[in-house]
Design goal:
By secondary structure, the chain is of the alpha/beta class. The chain has 13 helices and 11 strands. The protein has helices at residues 27-39, 67-77, 94-108, 123-126, 135-157, 191-200, 218-231, 249-261, 265-275, 286-292, 307-318, 333-344, 355-360; strands at 2-6, 44-46, 82-88, 112-117, 159-160, 172-173, 183-186, 203-206, 236-246, 301-306, 323-330. The protein has an 8-stranded parallel β-barrel, surrounded by 8 helices. It has a two-stranded antiparallel ribbon with strand order 5-6. Helix 5 (135-157) runs parallel beside helix 6. The protein is globular and about 60 Å long.
Length: 361
């Protein structure tokens, strides 16, 4: 099972709470986390793109770095780990993005990929007067499909003449082309989103909720498998999840309860108001899951327990049909990464193959 890290590009990470670890994003923090990931044998690191936060007392995600700029910097100071930057497709034309990606491919010597963000939070775009209107909710995956086609044309042949509903290319050129294939990731949770991923992407992030409820994952990998079957492709499933670990199960759970006590309800209400704008969202979609979520600091799957408990659960997850890997977040990234690399990963049967490589390094 591949392991990746979801970098802390926004303040306070993925806990919408005033009692969780509070921090501001910086290049130095993300470099330290990425270097730990590389040292512990992680296969990839990914940074999101967020253009407007949720506010509230915790100022949740009100402070963010820019994804492509960050990953270009990290590409220059790493040697092995694969790096994925995220693009909000409504903000950058695909031909410009293709050239940006080719540049980071050169910096990283072929270790770069792109995460496609279709746009669910319209306030991110309204503030710049580039929101295309409510019709975007229904057509955003058609928009993304053309966007990816333009990029792939330019990366493979250096030229695009695509004539679509959203993009019109006329002998559009990019050179040099990438030295390695640039993988595409999406995070489609709805059936339509998974169809887009199966047709155009190499990986798709799936989500599940609850505490230690790893049995929730298989139905989502099965939905992606059905979409793959229809598309005749093999888009691989990656699971987004959080680890909160300590010496004992009780100590780890006490951390979680402390974070729950500080849940930023004001920020959650603002987020849910944004999610509610897509009135036709599928129940499985990202916004559909937000609207139904419990009032807790995060609705992603949480593995909470001792180092032994978390290692055992990750081994069980690795047996999930169709699951290629996981992308991790932590309550405290620097401490959490060290705990994972020194206390959890050595206990994982599904990661034993990388331990000799780490020892040799």
């Amino acid at each position: 099972m591949d392991i990746g890290i979801f970098l802390p590009i926004g303040n306070n990470g993925w806990l919408i709470s005033s009692t969780s670890p509070q921090f501001m994003p910086s290049f130095d923090l993300n470099r330290a986390v990425t270097e730990k990931a590389e040292r512990f044998g992680f296969e990839f690191a990914l940074s999101m793109i967020k253009l407007r936060g949720f506010g509230g007392p915790s100022q949740y995600w009100d402070h963010n770095l820019e994804s492509f700029t960050l990953m270009a910097g990290l590409a220059a100071v790493t040697t092995r780990i694969k790096l994925f930057a995220s693009v909000a497709v409504l903000t950058i034309p695909p031909a410009i993005l293709a050239r940006m990606a080719s540049t980071i491919d050169s910096i990283s010597h072929g270790r770069f990929g792109v995460n496609i963000v279709s746009g669910w939070q319209k306030a991110e775009y309204e503030q710049m007067h580039i929101w295309p209107g409510e019709a975007h909710f229904a057509r955003r995956y058609e928009y993304c499909s053309e966007y990816v086609q333009v990029m792939q044309d330019l990366w493979t042949s250096g030229r695009s003449d695509l004539k679509g509903d959203f993009f019109q290319m006329t002998d559009c050129r990019v050179s040099p082309t990438p030295m390695a294939k640039i993988d595409i990731i999406a995070a489609g949770q709805s059936n339509r989103g998974m169809r887009f991923a199966a047709e155009y992407c190499d990986y798709n992030f799936i989500s599940a909720g609850g505490i230690n409820e790893i049995n929730q994952v298989a139905p989502h990998t099965a939905r992606l498998a059905e979409a793959n079957k229809a598309a005749g492709r093999d888009c691989k499933a990656m699971l987004l999840m959080m680890i909160i670990a300590d010496e004992t199960d009780a100590a780890a759970m006490a951390k979680w309860h402390h974070y729950v006590e500080g849940t930023d309800l004001e920020a959650l209400a603002w987020r849910d108001g944004q999610a509610g704008a897509d009135v036709k969202a599928e129940a499985h979609s990202t916004v559909g899951r937000m609207v139904r979520a419990d009032r807790v600091p995060t609705n992603m799957l949480r593995l909470i327990g001792s180092y032994e408990t978390v290692a055992r659960q990750l081994d069980e997850l690795s047996l999930t049909p169709g699951l290629a890997g996981v992308m991790l977040t932590f309550d405290d990234f620097l401490i959490g990464m060290e705990q994972f690399g020194t206390r959890i990963q050595p206990l994982m049967k599904c990661r034993q193959h990388i331990l000799p490589q780490l020892a040799a390094a």
